[in-house]
Amino acid sequence: MSTPDIIRVDLSHFPTDERFAQIPGKLVLADNMDDEFETIDRPSKSHFPVQLAMAVCMVCVSGKIEVKIDLNHYTLTDRSTMLIFSGSFFQMLNVEKGTKCLFMAISPDFITHAGDVKLGIEFGRKLRNEPIQYPNAKDLAEHITIYKELKRKLMDKQYAFKEEVAQCYLQIMQCNVFQQFTKHEQQHQENKPASRKEELFVKFMSVVKKHYTEYRNISFYADKLFVSPKYLSSVVHDVSGNYATDWINQHVILEAKAMLRAEGMSVKDVSNRLNFANQSFFAKYFKKHTGYTPKEYKAL
């Protein structure tokens, strides 16, 4: 008997009707700013965590939205924004009636950060800790204006350069967000590690996201990146403050927690899916990193 999967949501899960302005497989926009529909549709079984195969930006113009990101609870209120990385676990908890919001889902390869690697790493680190931001009124108004112009272009059936204009608009949004971020972080940039180390860290995180369910030994990742395990761990610690094994374990534990919360997934199922030698070994690993046995966590 097959075990149920963690639901992995990508751009193909969105309807292709007139409510959603989109470039198939690359970008989806939706909102209820003009009372087009009551609330943004949620993925099926939204009361369980889903894993996002896309980056997500949501703006709560007014009202209240409660979510979980990587199993942590957050609340969006008036004029707040939420940015989530592809690969994150997401759970929609509640949308207060009358809430006005806009939503963008973006394929990871549709827009990339081509600027300062150091800035990108610092920005990503901050977002993982603080995915909810509160831009000032001027910045938020500009963001909404760009969104509306982008949506208008995508909804125009005669417009022939939708991908090109979408990438331009998204780059403007990205630059505006980075500009606000640098105002607060610029003073810390001088003491960061050299860019070669930062680039290795970015490559390491990319490999971890692909292989963490199968490989937890740092030697595997060092071999993939053509460096020694000792050097890799040292560089990752210099750049991020965590050792390479910490990042690997964080990914494994996060996925384990999400699976244990999913309907129909037993502890044995989770152990098998994460390629542990046996259920007992998985239980010891999970308790070491969380303080709970899998059964205790599942019952919380």
Describe this structure in words.
The protein has 300 residues and is α+β, with helices and mostly antiparallel strands. The protein has helices at 117-129, 137-155, 162-185, 195-211, 218-225, 229-240, 244-261, 267-273, 279-290, 294-299; strands spanning 7-9, 21-23, 27-31, 50-52, 55-62, 65-69, 72-76, 80-84, 89-95, 100-106, 132-133. Helix 4 (195-211) crosses helix 6 and helix 4 (195-211) runs parallel beside helix 7 (244-261). The two termini are 27 Å apart. Residues 36-46 have low confidence and may be disordered.
Topology:
Layout: E1 7-9, E2 21-23, E3 27-31, E4 50-52, E5 55-62, E6 65-69, E7 72-76, E8 80-84, E9 89-95, E10 100-106, H1 117-129, E11 132-133, H2 137-155, H3 162-185, H4 195-211, H5 218-225, H6 229-240, H7 244-261, H8 267-273, H9 279-290, H10 294-299
Parallel strand pairs: 1-4
Antiparallel strand pairs: 2-3, 3-10, 4-9, 5-8, 5-10, 6-7, 6-9, 8-11
Helix pairs in contact: 2-3, 4-5, 4-6, 4-7, 5-6
Short summary:
The protein is α+β, with helices and mostly antiparallel strands. It is built from 10 helices and 11 strands.
Rg computed from alpha carbons, rounded to a whole number of angstroms: 20 Å
Strand count, sense and barrel status of the largest sheet are:
6 strands, antiparallel
Strand content: 15-25%
Number of strands: 11
